[in-house]
Amino acid sequence: MTLENQIKLGQFRNWVRSSIGLRCLRDGLLDYVTTSTEDQYKTFVKYLKRRAKISTFTCDKCQLCNLLPLHALEKKRCNQRHVNYCNCKRQSDKRVCPEGGACGIFYDCVTDEHFEHDPSWCNTSVELWSTNSFEFMKCFISTPGYKNKRSISLIDASGLISICLNNRRLRASFNDISDLLKKVKDYRNDILHSGDLKVSNDRLKEYLKDMKQILQHSELEENEAAQKELKTLERLETDELAITSQDDINMRKDALKAIIEREIELKLNLSEEDTLRTEVKTPFTSDSDKTENMPLTKDDETDVKTILTAGVKDKIEKELAQLSVAEEKHYNSIETTLQKVENEIIKVKETVRTHRSDLDEIKTGLLSQQNVLRSLSEEQQRQSKVLEETYDLVGDVHATGKETHSATLSTQKAVLESSNEVREILERVRRIDAQTTVPEQRLTVKITKTDRNGEKELSQRLVDICNSIVNMETIPPEKRTQIRHCLTMALNEIGKDGNEITAFKPECLAIYVRCKSLQTWVDLCEKCLAHELTQAFKAVENEVRRLTGLENVQLDVVIYEEDFLKSVNAIVASTNTDVARTLQTSSGRKRYQICFTFESSSDSDESSTARDEPTSNDNMMTGDFLDDVDDNEDSCEIEKELIEIEHLEHQNKELQMTQEDVKDTFVCNSCKNKFRTSAELSDHQAKYSNMNNFLSEERLKWTQRSPPRGVKLEKYTLCERFSKKKACPYGDKCIKPHTDCELTEWNQSLESMRQLILHIGENVEDLSLGYSLYKMCKEEKQMKATKPELDFVRIDALSELKVHTITKRFKNSWPFEIKSEYSLKRVCLTDQEASTYYNIENITDTTQKKDVCYDRSQLKDECQEWTNPKFVFNRKGQYKYRIKVAFQTEIYGTFCQNIIFDFGKSELLLKQLAVESAPVTSVDEVRGKFEKQCKRRWQEEDVNVVKFFERTDEDERGIGLKKQYPLEELLHKEFPDSLSRENYTAWMHMMLYAEEQARLEEISKFNIKTSLVLEDRLEPIDNPTSETLFANDGELLARIGLNDELSVDSIAGKLILRQSHMIWIAPVTIKRIDAMTKMSVYEARIEHRERDFIDVELSRQSVEELGLQCRQEFEVEIQFQLDRILFWEMHRAVDNLRQLDFVFPPLLNTKDFQKATSVLERRFVNKGMDELNPNQMTAVVKSSCTLKSATPPFLIVGPYGTGKTYTIAQAVKYIIKQSSKSRVLISTCSNSEADAYIKDYMHPFVETGNPEARPLRIYYRYRWRSTVSETVLAYCLLEEEGEHKGTFRSPTKDELLQHRVIVTTLHTAKLLTYLELTEDVFTHIFIDEAAQALECDLLIPLSLAGPKTRIILAGDHMQLSPDVYSKIGKQEQFQISMLERLVEYYIVDSPFVVTLCDNYRSTKEIIDFTSALFYDNRLKAVKNPPQHSVYYPLTFFTARGKEIMPDLKTGYYNESEVYEVVDQVEHFYQYWPPEWGKFDGKSICVVSTYKMQVQYGVYGRSYGNETFTMLRLRW
Question: FRET pair for 1409, CA 20 to 30 Å: which of 244, 540, 1186, 1439?
């Protein structure tokens, strides 16, 4: 029996369904239990921190074997159920937790929280209590075996139920179903410990019913996971859930796992019983034991007796035997299944072997017939399509009769399209002066996008309405519809200029029109070809779409080719005119040659019309002509076509047979085919496939760098950057040529491409080339025929053709006055991409005494082309026109448009319009915004600010800096034009003022007036990851709702989240005593931020002065404050910069530097350092090189993974070893980067016998000590006494001079600037990741440099630049870092720049991709690990989803992307290549822009024995 058939069996299937039900129950309870226990854990931690008087709980030294509980320390009675199991009974080897007894407090909290006061200490690890809430949860699982499990996702349903029963808080929530929980817990053993894998129907119903009852509990009603699994249980109950063989395998695994765990549990119970029996018999020998252990009570003696009962041991041994039998049955069942699978595989192999010979014979037969079939298939493929269509048409004609055949023909009729031939025919008709009878012209309203029945019904309904309109029938008001009104307007449009509508027919909707004259007939045809009549029927189309079943119907007014040619035939037949033109129908199946020759107009039949067949007349028509014929004539025509096809096929065969014998003179360069004549070659080259071959081969002919794809056809010019500096940051990706050779080749190839496109346009009229190539052909032909000036035309533009605006919403118009010797035929706006913004607004013909105006009511909406209805061909005169072109936009950008004036000549007049819309921020605008801002915000000099903290020395320094650099300087000082050496200081100051003002303006958007409710504690709102906030003594808390959402994606939100920590509060009802008294505002600290509210803490002084109380409500005005001290420090650094040579270095004396570095490179000894590649060695040598004269800053440029940090560390080692007088400052953008220098490089260097390189790590004093590793702490300075004991402190001057390596961040380097150091204290200053910081940030450590200090900047300027919020700052490129500016400032191949190109982090495929895109193919991969068997090193996966912001969060996540990432991580875990090493929690890194994306992804997921955790990276 196969595995699939076994699943279908009744009782076995019931067992699988029961097992799946247990899994559903577990998944339904998991989220609720996790959330509740984590809240409880956080509450315990807060309690023990207050009780132990510690700020953080980080103990990892205590273990269960040496932990002394709190009640033993306080000599209180033990509350544990089994007293002898408690740690208070054997105190000789126990100790108090070093963190104020915190672990002992936690021990007693867990015991008290346990419902039966009997925690399972064997399941938990005490050393992890401070970091992992899951260790707290495991104390409530009554069965052992969970100690090594590190994630709650590994707990089964039994474990979760055990937590619900033993945890007091959860027990209280589920108290009404506690018996049901115990019952279902027993179900788990009955199901998973079953050896026969069978469950009866009654038992299955009982199992699933009880499981559902648990998930239906009121506590789980709003839990999404529980409700989801409840639905799955309901489907299991009705047997609607599909069960696969994989489910069977998973349930067998669960069963085996449960049996093995139960065996381990029982064996542990036996060992514990023996241990306890021994302990009871052994007397206490220690004095401390005697004094601490009180006599056993009666309850304790009863417990011991229960444990020591011999019957318990027998029961356990009996259950062990049963489990062993069940386990054996499981293994036997699995082996049997595997044996069945192996037997089926053997049978399949045998079948394949027996049929292999048959397959070989079939293969041989197929090969022998292949040559015959190839020749037949080619011929059949060529003829099949034509023959099928022809014979189907013949069958329809004979089978269904005339009506069906007419319908078939109507669907295949070719629609008349605007082409050169049609336009020429209309022009010739327009020039006919003879009086002649104008034939009826049939217009057809095509009905598409509906079925055949819908078309018939709609057609008949429209005919009826049209007839009633024409006949002027009286319609009752209740029957008048909007369709009738719209049809009336449309028919009025057709009946203009004296046209008469004679009849309607239900052929779609055929409208027969008799025109007043040939001129009006031509106008009617041109209107139809220009889709003006279709536009007139748009209102009818909209009303028809309201009808049921016709929601997508489309109405198009067209003229069929055959109707048009009939009218032309009738016109020609009544005149004495010669017309000869070749037309090609849109179907492309046949060319019709029309040649009319008439001797006199008297031979015409005036009574013949478009609806009646023309009289046969040999003198009237020669050649082939498409006309109305009856069924017999259609059949004859089809037969003639078939005969003609056979004749042509025969000729082609003869041509192929004789082609080899003909000497080929003409050869196609693309496909190498040979032709007899040049005409045949030209026809061949007009084909689409040949054109594609030519276009693809053109790109293979470049001798220089090929031009970029996607650039419009225009003349190329040289790259300005490359011409000036011989270097371009875009490299090969630059869209402009770099050399004269490239420029010449690009323009030559561009011209040849234009000629090719023109050739295509002349040979191919339809869209068989594809729309894009067809559009290029059309545009190129138009542009070739255009000229900026024509001899017979004078055109005056009354405004500038190119306009620049700084506003986003902008309107403009260009009036043109035209004076011409010839009549204006057409005006056209050619650029379709700009058609949304440009349109022809009005046209006035001022030729006659009375002006004729065509305004919006007569022009089409968004008119792009206008045709003069009074155009006179090639007749000289004095013609005058006024034309107005309008423009409107609501976005920024560059908008170009070409306007072409057509006077019926071969040459066209071209005028080019352009609008550039881009914001330009002026200095006056910045100052105006600041003045308005000052009026809206409280200024510190106008109010009395009550500070949250007491002032410190640092605050006093900040007050001094504020007075020195007031923001009001923005109003008084002049803005320099651009950055230069002469105005460097002034330019930097003004950019900093503008940036500070822009940030203040952004955060002011959150200023509000609101009502506050004061509390002494604030609970988190639906957010289990947040903690409860408690107010300190005398202080109060308040939750403030915001008027906008905080988001890391908004400018203001980002500033509030990162750079605003204080707010100012003032009561709305406050009154000043007199005009001289300043109003008091109170500083409050922001404690917590969520998406739409913040939690703040009010100081004790503000509470006392305002008389505030808990739960009081009062109205306040709130203003957010920006941390401005950083701007003041940067202003100070600008003024403290000792030499401008650091920022604008002279580049004249490079020979001395090159000589010195070349000598050092020859003498370089890589001693005490790791291996360096040549570029890294050069960087180390040039970094250490010092001359008597000052040298420019040295730049180490390197993309990611090239070892910039490693190179700087080796350079520091080399400098320290080379000279005893050297002192190095390393400054980084972040603390993590600074710590890496200590942990990874300097600490090992010091430990290996280099004490002179002992570094000093400087931290800001408010940094949490717990966030710093023990290795780095050894190199820091800490307060040793006072209220700030244990916090970080700044070094004194003497302490700094005792170290030769100083490590800081850019901003903490300000602490060194207050030590009054001499200018030669640092010989070298290294700044890492210099491209990620503003130039002003770098000036803080650079202000410590002297004239001879060697400055080294490292970074990658091709990565993201720092954030700038000021518009004028962006306009002046304030965001460009010093590294990027100096890279362009230095000459090409400067000795002061070294580029690291060897990448040690990624595989070759990833490096090649990024190198080609961003680094001009300069990177190369040094390490190339073995590839994965399935995944390419750089693989892209797609997921269609949307970004979601969860409730109360400030970030986003995309569920679809999360699911895709999780699937790929699981797949990698399952198929981890052994050559990559052992899989652990650091083997895979998931990087995301948003923190929430990682939290909803693999955070906390377990794979094997490893659990993924989350590390937040900030940049």
Answer: 1439
* CB burial string 126-140: b at 16+ within 10 A, e below: bbebbebbbbbbbbb
Using the 8-state DSSP alphabet, how is residue 575 labeled? Answer: S
Which range is least confidently modeled, 498-502, 631-635, 1365-1369? Answer: 631-635
C-alpha 1228/C-alpha 1393 separation (Å) is 20
Q: Is 0.70 topped by the overall pTM?
A: no
- By DSSP bridging, strand 1502-1503 and strand 1506-1507 are antiparallel
C-beta of residue 443 within 8 angstroms of C-beta of residue 513: yes
Task: Please state, in angstroms and rounded to a whole number, the distance separating the CA atoms of residues 554 and 550.
Answer: 9
Q: How far apart are CA 6 and CA 334, in angstroms?
A: 12
What is the per-residue pLDDT across 1451-1504, written as a single tens digit (0 to 9) for each? 666 778 888 888 888 888 887 888 888 887 778 888 877 666 666 554 445 444
507, 463 contact by CB (below 8 A): no
Query: Comparing C-alpha atoms, which of 310, 344, 292 is closest to residue 78?
Result: 292
Q: Name residues whose C-beta falls within 8 Å of residue 1033's C-beta, 6 or more positions apart in sequence.
A: 1100
The closest of 1456, 1450, 1420 to 1438, measured between CA atoms, is: 1456
Residue type, 1304: T
Question: Can you spell out the DSSP letters for 2-47?
Answer: -HHHHHTSHHHHHHHHHHHHHHHHHHHHHHHHHHHHHHHHHHHHHH
Q: Which of 453-457, 1074-1078, 1272-1276 has the highest mean pLDDT?
A: 1272-1276
The structure tokens listed for 740 are 């004269």
Q: What are the C-alpha distances in Å from 968 to residues 389, 933, 963, 1064, 1267?
A: 84, 11, 10, 20, 39
* HSE value, Cβ hemisphere, 13 Å, CA-based, for 1381: 22
Please give the structure tokens belonging to residue 160: 């979760």
In the DSSP assignment, the letter for residue 1288 is B
Bridge partners for 900 per DSSP: 828, 910
Q: Which residues pair with 1448 in a beta bridge?
A: none
Structure tokens at 1218: 């080379």
Token pair in block for residue 28? 């339904």
Alpha-carbon gap, residue 473 to 808, rounded angstroms: 54
Rounded Cα–Cα distance for residues 1351 and 1323 (Å): 9
Query: Which is nearest to 1395 in space by CA: 727, 562, 483?
Result: 727
Query: From CA 265, how far away is CA 276, in angstroms rounded?
Result: 16
Q: How far apart are CA 108 and CA 130, in angstroms?
A: 15
Give the number of other CB atoms < 10 A from CB of residue 1056. 26
Residue type, 353: R
| pLDDT tens-digit readout, 1078-1111 | 888 899 988 888 777 888 899 888 888 888 888 8
Which DSSP symbol is given to 1317?
-
Residue 498 — left, alpha, or beta (φ > 0 → left; ψ -120 to 50 → alpha)?
left
Cα Rg for the chain, rounded, in angstroms? 45
End-to-end CA distance of the chain: 61
Does residue 1395 or residue 1189 have the better pLDDT?
1395
* Helices of type H across 102-223: 102-113, 133-138, 157-166, 168-173, 178-192, 201-215
**Residue 860 exposed, middle or buried by CB count within 10 Å (0-12, 13-18, 19+):** middle
By DSSP bridging, strand 1398-1399 and strand 1420-1421 are parallel
Dihedral sign computed on CA atoms, order 748, 752, 755, 757: negative
Phi, psi dihedral angles at 999 (to 5 degrees): -70, -40
Partners of 551 in beta bridges: none
How far is it, in rounded angstroms, from Cα 954 to Cα 1311? 10
CA-CA distance, 1334 to 1126, in Å (whole number)?
A: 12
